[in-house]
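Lest this sound abstract, we think one record worth quoting, the chain in one-letter code, the fold tokenised, each line plainly labelled:

>
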Amino acid sequence: MGKKRNSYEHLADPRDRAHPRDLVAFFICGLINNYAYVVMLSAAGDLLSSGGYVMPFSVVLLADILPCFLIQFAAPWFMAAIPYWVRVLVVTVLSVASFLIPAFCEDVFVKLIGPVCASLASGLGEITFLALTSHYHK
């Protein structure tokens, strides 16, 4: 009969450990993925201050949360058909757009596209990078 293993014994085997490069890459991707989302939440007042419109901060909060929720709700039905490189490319483009649109547009309603892009990038990036972890070592 074989020796009963403790649930933590596999960590002692160097072959079962994650490669440091993978850990650093996932840490950086996760940090970058949430960066635009947090910046848009922090900049809610600045986004709404131009244009002379009076809108509550909840408009930016809704634009920053609802798209993320919708994409995470709907993703299980279609994400398997999209290759990972396409997902990462879309996340990158949406993240860049989330900063450029509010920076170069004057209209408040157009500036709200920035938080929407940040929210979509965050939701899609979270799903993509979490799914990618299943392809790497423990």
Notes: The longest helix spans residues 20-42. The mean pLDDT is 82.
